[in-house]
Each structure stands twice: as structure tokens, then as C-alpha cells.
């Protein structure tokens, strides 16, 4: 299927050229005559109307934050439910449905719920609903992936293991107050702890295991958000209508339609108005951006791609990475390979400019990102790359055009990348050629790209043929690099072991010794040091940070785009 | 008296013949059904093996620090039995299948049979509409081609048929969407139902029809080649038969010869092709459904393969296998019914 996408796209392009040539010409001319619309939605805001939000993968219909898994369901949930806290523009958690208070010793967190927040069925949100959500997730039969978000609550692990009847650390004080005790103080507790309440009165006695398949979640889900579910057509469409008792006042729109479309049709459907708001497929962005009825918005995303060097393997018994691969231990080699690649040209050529080179694992939207002036930028410089290689002893001794390693043995580099996008092959060739141009004999591992599953299977199994590979990570709003970067992390895919790095990562989530010091400032200092380390050591080549393109029809106003998607749904409106 | 006797005798003989024939068919059907069991078993092994040979599983897609962690993935693999030896997994799966339980979908978090049951109506509506379009077009074109064989019109029809056969369905689907949905705006581009309609109302059924018509035409009109050429060739062959010559000699009108005598005889064998369409009907159109975002079995199948949702994927594959086998049996039985000369053995 994916392979045919290339043909779909090329066909669509050819067709759009033809069709634009015969029908679109007149229209364009007429809009040029009256360029009064400056693109911004500045017209009069209207009450009512319906907006269609598009997505290109079918949704599963698990409409509960505790159980959903993919972006497909999250897109629907965002209209209908909210958490006690929300992430602000600085990517820091702030009060939403509840205020919070942290005790002196940082182990007791008290939420004070706003009064009068209503579920869609008219019941009031209470502290029990939050308690209920934690119990659902810590339940021994719970099959979702969120346990990590309640594991810090005292007694949650015991409850999950069946050793305790209740969770010790949860205490409901009154209808609007709930207190949690955590096992140990943590700087990013607010970012990590689960804050989405679940409607206890609505779910009744259904067990945590049965809930994801229950009608309460699939057919009549409720939340406290600005829109309530009116109609669900499985896998295809969800219709929402305004919830008049929304705690921030009723939304401006009458309703929202969440509609699934085929990605290859995005441009056409945005053009003819069937879809109002959509994260546009990157390969169609050039065309969609140019549409007359579209406000294009480009938002920095919390994700980055990288080219990793293989450092060794994961010792499953000890649960730690072992950097025993000698091949890429030479730092000059790694630096040279980074300097050899023109990342900006890559972004312009393959992603319609939707991306920016980055040099640390923190995208620029993260508050913890170090100032660019303090780190090496690894700008494109093939001459410098060649010089570095020469100095490190990687020179061409047998005259075949490729460098040998310092011992004079042939030096080849296997490269792995994922298949899937229509430009995947060309992207991989771009990287290979960049390295070949500075005299490194790089080739595709096994002669072809790997599909997503095979790619990660091969890498996770530490297959000896893997030497360099291109991957990507999406990140949470808290900058803590644990989970990917610690030497004990299984997802430390490149198997880089560094005591210094481990130490800094762990220090990054501690409170400053000097209690008067600002926590964020303290963490910033630690993370700056850590970024300098990985930037200099370059265990992976940091490649580009992503930019998400959003197409928003000019008739829709008030749409806020964040690194994680769209927001402020109750303020969306139709522009006259 | 003698006349009556012979009539009765003939009648008895006919009943006898029907009885014998009926027994024969029943026997044959039972034998074929029994013969299917080892085939289904073998295919189940193949389907299971191929599924397991695919790299990755439903949890590979969860490599995402934002939403899960390695401990969770490992725990779920263990819980779902993905770490067990392959034969153990096969026996577990098969013992469920025999009892009609295809397990739960990991991705959708619900029983596979429910999931398929939800999608089937859409697929069947689309399948039947497409089939009707195919039959109608093929009948009209085949009749014309058969009657005016080797004429300009015949060649044009052949050209269209083979062109339609050669054009990949995603190309046809995209062109159709671009022209009729996006540029002309006659029909919606995707989905199986419009927003804001209430189930059960007239508007609802109209919306349903409006959403189905374009994919049905794309599916139906592109698949006429086999039927058209089959009908055409049969008609040409029939037109050379003795009874046709007799009819001509008696001065029967040419149109009556074709429309009554030949067509009636030539249509019969085509009816038997119906058997082969059964599996197609339920299997859905993988590519067409995906492009039209039409939530049927084909779409579900693609989705499941991409997400490595084995239980759904294997259930659909098994369902299609069984339907294909049954379809073949039905086709053979229909042959026997319409043409008593064919012996079932």
C-alpha cells in the first residue's frame, strides 16, 4: 500500500496540473484582482456553524484518555475532555480544572477542583472521579500503557501486584479536594502524574479490563470538554455538538465533525472545503499552502530525527548498554560524518522546508534547549570533513576512491533507514552520497530500506549488520532525557554508554541543593551541561527538528496551534 | 390408456431422475465439504506462518517514549503470549477458531468477530452495488458484442474492457474522486455516510447511496471484461448452432433469434460465475475502500496488516479462504443445475 502512495501522489500532481490548467485558471485571475483578504482571520466572529477536523488514519473509537492509544483517538478526545492540569505555551503544567499545592517536602500533592464543572450528562465532576481514574490505571487487569503515570503514587505498585486492597497514597478529603502522596520527590511530578479524571457514575461496575470495549467508552463517551459526542460512525467520523454547561462558558461553534480521509486526497478536500482544519501531509504542503482558502500555519514540533552510530549492544541480563563496537569510537570520524551532510538542503529538498537542523536532542520549543551559540553547529563543510578524516588516519591507501581505516583495512559503512514515504529512497541516497563525497564507502544495509517493523526489530535485536541508522523521536513536554538516553534504557537504540551523561540526566530531575534556587533554573544549568556533552561527543548525528504544517480554512478563526496539535477549541469560530 | 400410461411413466421417470440427481448432488456436496477440512487446516497453517513471519507485532508501533515504555511492551507481549513458541501460539489460536472465537484485536481492543461484523454491512452494500453494475454493463456490452461481432462497436467495447482491466484501481479511484467529487462536487469524496443525518430517515439512506455510488461504479465498471467477453464468445458460438440455423430457415426475425434463443442459452453459464463472486463480495475491495475511506472489510484488512494486528488479519484471511471454497462449490453445483449433462463426480 505504502509503495503505491508514490504513484498516487505523482498521478495526483499530474492531474492537478491538467485540471488547474483547464478550470482553475479563471478563478485565480479573479482573486488576484481583489486581494483584500490578507490571510489572517480578521473578519467578524459569528456564533454557530460547524467545523470539520480532518485526520488521515482511521480512529479506533477508544474514547477515554486512560485507554486510548493513538493520535487517531486523541484527536477526538481533545474536543470532549480535559485534565486537571494543562500544558502552557512554555510547556509547563498549569492549573486547569483544579489548582494544586505541593507540600514542603514535595511528597504530598493536593488538587483542589473547581466547583461546578459538569460532565456531559449533567453530573458534577468530583474528586472521586480523579481517584477512580488512578484506580482504573493501577488495576491489575489494566491493559493500557499509562501505568508509568501513576507508578509514583505511594502504594500503586502494590495495588497493581495485588498485594494491597487500596492505593495507600490516595486520599479523598472532600468532593473537591484530593491528596496524593508520592514515593519520592520529583521535579517533574506535575508533568508525569495522570491528571485526566474518568466519570465514575457513568462507567459503573465495569472492570478495568472490560472498559475499553464497553458501550460507555465506545458509544456514549462523556467528558467535561467544550463539545459532547452526538454521533459516532466507527472508523469514519465523529460528530460533536456544543456542550452548553462547559465550565469556561459555551463554545462559539454549534459543533465539530472529526472526519477521517485518505491522505492522498488532503489537498482536494481542503480546497473544496470538505475539511476545514487538518495537519497537512508534508509532501502536499507546497500545493496546500498556496490554496486561496487556506491559512497555512507552521508549528515547531516536539520531535527530531537523527542518524545514530551503532555503539554496541544491550545486555539484557544486566539491563545496561555495552558500547563494545570499535567502529565509531573515533570522535573525528563522527564529527566528519556530521559535517559531510547538508541538512538544510535535505530539509528543503525532501520536506518542503518543514524542518530545521538541530544539534542537541531538545527541539527549539523546549524551554531546556541550550543557546545555539554555546554548542557546535556542525554546519555543512565537506572540506572540513575531509580534513578531519585525513587527520584521524582515514585515508585512501589503495586508490579506489574510498578511504581505508587507520590500520589500512577497507572501511565500509552500513546505513539503515525506514521505507514508507515516497521520498524514503531518495532521502537515503542523499545521505549515502554525502558520505561518499568525502570518501567514505557507505551503502544501504542489505541493499534496501526496511519497513518500520523490520527496522526496529533489526535494531532492537542488535543485529551485527546495523552500523548507522536514521530514526526519529517524538518527545513529551518535560525535557527529562531518561527513557531514551540513560545507559539502562532499552530505547537507547544506539547503545551509547556514558557515566557522565547518566549522572547529569539523573541530576536533572533532582531539586537544587540550595533550596532558595529556582528549580527550572537549576535544571536548565544541568541540561545545558548535558547538551554540551552530547553535542561534543556526538553519539548520534542530530539531524532535524520537525515542523508540523497545519492547513486552516480562512472561514475558521480562533484556532490555536501548539507543538502538540490544536487547542482552545471553545474559542474556535466561523469568520464572516 | 396407453397414452396416459406413457405420460405417467414419463412423469415418474422425471421424478426418478430428479431424485437421483438430488441424491447425487447432496452426496457430492457432503463429499466436497469433508474434503474442505484438510484444505482449511493447511491454509490456516500457511496464514498463521506467514503472519508470524512478518517482522514486528502489534507492539512494535508502540516504540514512543511519549506514550509507553519498554517495560509495558514487554509485559503486554508476555500477557498476549507473543513470547511463547510458535506451535503453542498456533494451537491456542486454532482451538479458538474451531469454537468460532477469533480472539481480540489488540489495536481495536474488542473481539475480532464484532469488529468484522461492524464492517460487513458496508462491504456487502458496496459489493452488491458493484456487482449489479458489473452485471448490467457486461450484459449490455456482451449482448451487443455477441450480436455484432467483429464490428466497430465490438472492437470499441473490447478496447474499453481491456483498458478497464489494465488500469489499476487506485488510479481509477483517484481520477474519479478528483473529477466527480472534488471538481464537479456531485458526490462526496470519502466516507460511507454524511454528517448530520439521523439513522433510519430517508435522508440517511440517500446519504448512504450518495457515498456508495462512486466507489461502486469504480469497482463495478472496471471489472466487466471477463463477463462481457464470456457472454460475447458464447453468443458467437451459439449463433453457429443448428437450432439457430433452423430458426433462421423458418424465417424468425434476427432480433428474436438473438434476444430469445441465443441470449437465453448464453446467459445460463454466466450465472454460474456468481459462485466465484461470493468471496469478492465479502472480501471487500482493499484499495478502493482505502482510498474512499469506506469502512469495510478491505479497509480493515489493510489497517490490520499495517498495524500488525494479527488476530484481525488472520480472521479475515480465514474468512476469505472459506468463502472462496464455498464459492467454488456453489459454482460447481450451479453448473450441474443449469446443465444436466455435466456429471458431478
Automatic annotation (TrEMBL), chain A:
<feature type="signal peptide">
    <location>
        <begin position="1"/>
        <end position="20"/>
    </location>
</feature>
<keyword id="KW-0732">Signal</keyword>
<dbReference type="InterPro" id="IPR000914">
    <property type="entry name" value="SBP_5_dom"/>
</dbReference>
<feature type="compositionally biased region" description="Basic and acidic residues">
    <location>
        <begin position="29"/>
        <end position="41"/>
    </location>
</feature>
<feature type="domain" description="Solute-binding protein family 5">
    <location>
        <begin position="94"/>
        <end position="490"/>
    </location>
</feature>
<dbReference type="InterPro" id="IPR039424">
    <property type="entry name" value="SBP_5"/>
</dbReference>
<keyword id="KW-0813">Transport</keyword>
<feature type="region of interest" description="Disordered">
    <location>
        <begin position="26"/>
        <end position="49"/>
    </location>
</feature>
<dbReference type="GO" id="GO:0043190">
    <property type="term" value="C:ATP-binding cassette (ABC) transporter complex"/>
</dbReference>
<dbReference type="Pfam" id="PF00496">
    <property type="entry name" value="SBP_bac_5"/>
</dbReference>
<comment type="similarity">
    <text>Belongs to the bacterial solute-binding protein 5 family.</text>
</comment>
<dbReference type="InterPro" id="IPR050034">
    <property type="entry name" value="Opp4A"/>
</dbReference>
<dbReference type="InterPro" id="IPR030678">
    <property type="entry name" value="Peptide/Ni-bd"/>
</dbReference>
<protein>
    <submittedName>
        <fullName>Peptide/nickel transport system substrate-binding protein</fullName>
    </submittedName>
</protein>
<dbReference type="GO" id="GO:1904680">
    <property type="term" value="F:peptide transmembrane transporter activity"/>
</dbReference>
<dbReference type="GO" id="GO:0042597">
    <property type="term" value="C:periplasmic space"/>
</dbReference>
<dbReference type="GO" id="GO:0015833">
    <property type="term" value="P:peptide transport"/>
</dbReference>
From TrEMBL, chain B:
<keyword id="KW-1003">Cell membrane</keyword>
<dbReference type="InterPro" id="IPR035906">
    <property type="entry name" value="MetI-like_sf"/>
</dbReference>
<dbReference type="Pfam" id="PF00528">
    <property type="entry name" value="BPD_transp_1"/>
</dbReference>
<feature type="domain" description="ABC transmembrane type-1">
    <location>
        <begin position="120"/>
        <end position="331"/>
    </location>
</feature>
<dbReference type="GO" id="GO:0055085">
    <property type="term" value="P:transmembrane transport"/>
</dbReference>
<feature type="transmembrane region" description="Helical">
    <location>
        <begin position="312"/>
        <end position="338"/>
    </location>
</feature>
<keyword id="KW-1133">Transmembrane helix</keyword>
<feature type="transmembrane region" description="Helical">
    <location>
        <begin position="212"/>
        <end position="231"/>
    </location>
</feature>
<keyword id="KW-0812">Transmembrane</keyword>
<dbReference type="Pfam" id="PF19300">
    <property type="entry name" value="BPD_transp_1_N"/>
</dbReference>
<keyword id="KW-0472">Membrane</keyword>
<feature type="transmembrane region" description="Helical">
    <location>
        <begin position="123"/>
        <end position="141"/>
    </location>
</feature>
<dbReference type="InterPro" id="IPR000515">
    <property type="entry name" value="MetI-like"/>
</dbReference>
<feature type="transmembrane region" description="Helical">
    <location>
        <begin position="33"/>
        <end position="51"/>
    </location>
</feature>
<keyword id="KW-0813">Transport</keyword>
<dbReference type="InterPro" id="IPR045621">
    <property type="entry name" value="BPD_transp_1_N"/>
</dbReference>
<feature type="transmembrane region" description="Helical">
    <location>
        <begin position="162"/>
        <end position="186"/>
    </location>
</feature>
<comment type="similarity">
    <text>Belongs to the binding-protein-dependent transport system permease family.</text>
</comment>
<dbReference type="GO" id="GO:0005886">
    <property type="term" value="C:plasma membrane"/>
</dbReference>
<protein>
    <submittedName>
        <fullName>Peptide/nickel transport system permease protein</fullName>
    </submittedName>
</protein>
<feature type="transmembrane region" description="Helical">
    <location>
        <begin position="267"/>
        <end position="292"/>
    </location>
</feature>
Amino acid at each position: 500500500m505504502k509503495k503505491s502512495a508514490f504513484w498516487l501522489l505523482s498521478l495526483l500532481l499530474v492531474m492537478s496540473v491538467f485540471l488547474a490548467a483547464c478550470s482553475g485558471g479563471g478563478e485565480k485571475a479573479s482573486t488576484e484582482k481583489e486581494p483584500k483578504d490578507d490571510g489572517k482571520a480578521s473578519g467578524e466572529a459569528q456564533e454557530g456553524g460547524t467545523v470539520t477536523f480532518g485526520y488521515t488514519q482511521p480512529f479506533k473509537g477508544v474514547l477515554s484518555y486512560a485507554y486510548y492509544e493513538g493520535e487517531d483517538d486523541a484527536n477526538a478526545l481533545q474536543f470532549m475532555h480535559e485534565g486537571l492540569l494543562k500544558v502552557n505555551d512554555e510547556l509547563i503544567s498549569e492549573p486547569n480544572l483544579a489548582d494544586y499545592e505541593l507540600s514542603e517536602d514535595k511528597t504530598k500533592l493536593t488538587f483542589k477542583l473547581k466547583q461546578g464543572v459538569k460532565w456531559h450528562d449533567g453530573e458534577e465532576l468530583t474528586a472521586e472521579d480523579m481517584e477512580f481514574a488512578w484506580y482504573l490505571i493501577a488495576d491489575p487487569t489494566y491493559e493500557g500503557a499509562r501505568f508509568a503515570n501513576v507508578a509514583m503514587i505511594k502504594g500503586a505498585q502494590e495495588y497493581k501486584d495485588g498485594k494491597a486492597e487500596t492505593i495507600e497514597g490516595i486520599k479523598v478529603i472532600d468532593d473537591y479536594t484530593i491528596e496524593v502522596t508520592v514515593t519520592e520527590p520529583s521535579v517533574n511530578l506535575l508533568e508525569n502524574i495522570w491528571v485526566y479524571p474518568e466519570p465514575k457514575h457513568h462507567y459503573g461496575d465495569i472492570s478495568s479490563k472490560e472498559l475499553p470495549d464497553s458501550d460507555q467508552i465506545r458509544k456514549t463517551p462523556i467528558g467535561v470538554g467544550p463539545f459532547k459526542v452526538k454521533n459516532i460512525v466507527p472508523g469514519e467520523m465523529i460528530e460533536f455538538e456544543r456542550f452548553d454547561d462547559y465550565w469556561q462558558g459555551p463554545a462559539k461553534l454549534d459543533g465539530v465533525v472529526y472526519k477521517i480521509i485518505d491522505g492522498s486526497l488532503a489537498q482536494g478536500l481542503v480546497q473544496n472545503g470538505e475539511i476545514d482544519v487538518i495537519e497537512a501531509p508534508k509532501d502536499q504542503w507546497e500545493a496546500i499552502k498556496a490554496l486561496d482558502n487556506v491559512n497555512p500555519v507552521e508549528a515547531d514540533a516536539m520531535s527530531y530525527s537523527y542518524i545514530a552510530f551503532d555503539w554496541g549492544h544491550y545486555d539484557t541480563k544486566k539491563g545496561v548498554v555495552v558500547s563494545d563496537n570499535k567502529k565509531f569510537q573515533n570522535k573525528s570520524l563522527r564529527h566528519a560524518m556530521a559535517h559531510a551532510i547538508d541538512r538544510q538542503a535535505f530539509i528543503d529538498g525532501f520536506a518542503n522546508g518543514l524542518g530545521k537542523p538541530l544539534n542537541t536532542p531538545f527541539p527549539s520549543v523546549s524551554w531546556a534547549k541550550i543557546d545555539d551559540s554555546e554548542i557546535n553547529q556542525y554546519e555543512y563543510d565537506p572540506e572540513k570533513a575531509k580534513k578531519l578524516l585525513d587527520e584521524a588516519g582515514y585515508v585512501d591507501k589503495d586508490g579506489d576512491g574510498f578511504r581505508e581505516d587507520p590500520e589500512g583495512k577497507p572501511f565500509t559503512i552500513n546505513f539503515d533507514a525506514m521505507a514508507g514515504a515516497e521520498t524514503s529512497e531518495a532521502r537515503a541516497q542523499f545521505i549515502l552520497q554525502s558520505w561518499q563525497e568525502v570518501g567514505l564507502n557507505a551503502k544501504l544495509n542489505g541493499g534496501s530500506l526496511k519497513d518500520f517493523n523490520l527496522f526496529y526489530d533489526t535494531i532492537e535485536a542488535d543485529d551485527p549488520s546495523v552500523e548507522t541508522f536514521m530514526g526519529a523521536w517524538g518527545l513529551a513536554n518535560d525535557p527529562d532525557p531518561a527513557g531514551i538516553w540513560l545507559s539502562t534504557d532499552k530505547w537507547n537504540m544506539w547503545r551509547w554508554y556514558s557515566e557522565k551523561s547518566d549522572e547529569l540526566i539523573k541530576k536533572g530531575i533532582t531539586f537544587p541543593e540550595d533550596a532558595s534556587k529556582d528549580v527550572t533554573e537549576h535544571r536548565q544549568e544541568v541540561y545545558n551541561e548535558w547538551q554540551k556533552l552530547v553535542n561534543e561527543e556526538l553519539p548520534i548525528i542530530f539531524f532535524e527538528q520537525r515542523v508540523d504544517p497545519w492547513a486552516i480554512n480562512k472561514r475558521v478563526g480562533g484556532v490555536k496551534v501548539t507543538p502538540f496539535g490544536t487547542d482552545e477549541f471553545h474559542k474556535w469560530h466561523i469568520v464572516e | 390408456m396407453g397414452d396416459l400410461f406413457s405420460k405417467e411413466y414419463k412423469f415418474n421417470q422425471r421424478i426418478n431422475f430428479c431424485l437421483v440427481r438430488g441424491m447425487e448432488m447432496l452426496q457430492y456436496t457432503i463429499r466436497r465439504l469433508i474434503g474442505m477440512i484438510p484444505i482449511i487446516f493447511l491454509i490456516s497453517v500457511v496464514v498463521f506462518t506467514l503472519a508470524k513471519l512478518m517482522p514486528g507485532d502489534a507492539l512494535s508501533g508502540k516504540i514512543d517514549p511519549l506514550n509507553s515504555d519498554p517495560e509495558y511492551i514487554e509485559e503486554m507481549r508476555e500477557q498476549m503470549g507473543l513470547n511463547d513458541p510458535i506451535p503453542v501460539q498456533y494451537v491456542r489460536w486454532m482451538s479458538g477458531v474451531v469454537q468460532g472465537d477469533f480472539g481480540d484485536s489488540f489495536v481495536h481492543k474488542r473481539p475480532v468477530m464484532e469488529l468484522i461484523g461492524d464492517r460487513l454491512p458496508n462491504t456487502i452494500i458496496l459489493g452488491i452495488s458493484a456487482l449489479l453494475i458489473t452485471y448490467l454493463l457486461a450484459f449490455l456490452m456482451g449482448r451487443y458484442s455477441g450480436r455484432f461481432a467483429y464490428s466497430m462497436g465490438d472492437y470499441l467495447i473490447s478496447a474499453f474492457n481491456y483498458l478497464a482491466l489494465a488500469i489499476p484501481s487506485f488510479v481509477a479511484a483517484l481520477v474519479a474522486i478528483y473529477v466527480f467529487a472534488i471538481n464537479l462536487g456531485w458526490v462526496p469524496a470519502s466516507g460511507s455516510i454524511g454528517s448530520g443525518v439521523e439513522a433510519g430517515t430517508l435522508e440517511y439512506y440517500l446519504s448512504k447511496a450518495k457515498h456508495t455510488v462512486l466507489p461502486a461504479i469504480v469497482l463495478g465498471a472496471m471489472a466487466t471484461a471477463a463477463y462481457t467477453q464470456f457472454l460475447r464468445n458464447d453468443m458467437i458460438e451459439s449463433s453457429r448452432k443448428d437450432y439457430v440455423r433452423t430458426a433462421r430457415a423458418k424465417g424468425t426475425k434476427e432480433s428474436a433469434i438473438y434476444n430469445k434463443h441465443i441470449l437465453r442459452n448464453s446467459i445460463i453459464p454466466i450465472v454460474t460465475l456468481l459462485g466465484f463472486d461470493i468471496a469478492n463480495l465479502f472480501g471487500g475491495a482493499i484499495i478502493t475502500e482505502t482510498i474512499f475511506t469506506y469502512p469495510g472489510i478491505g479497509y480493515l484488512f489493510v489497517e490490520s496488516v499495517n498495524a500488525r494486528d494479527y488476530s484481525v488479519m488472520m480472521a479475515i484471511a480465514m474468512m476469505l479462504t472459506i468463502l472462496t471454497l464455498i464459492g467454488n462449490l456453489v459454482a460447481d453445483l450451479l453448473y450441474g443445475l443449469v446443465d444436466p449433462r455435466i456429471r458431478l463426480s
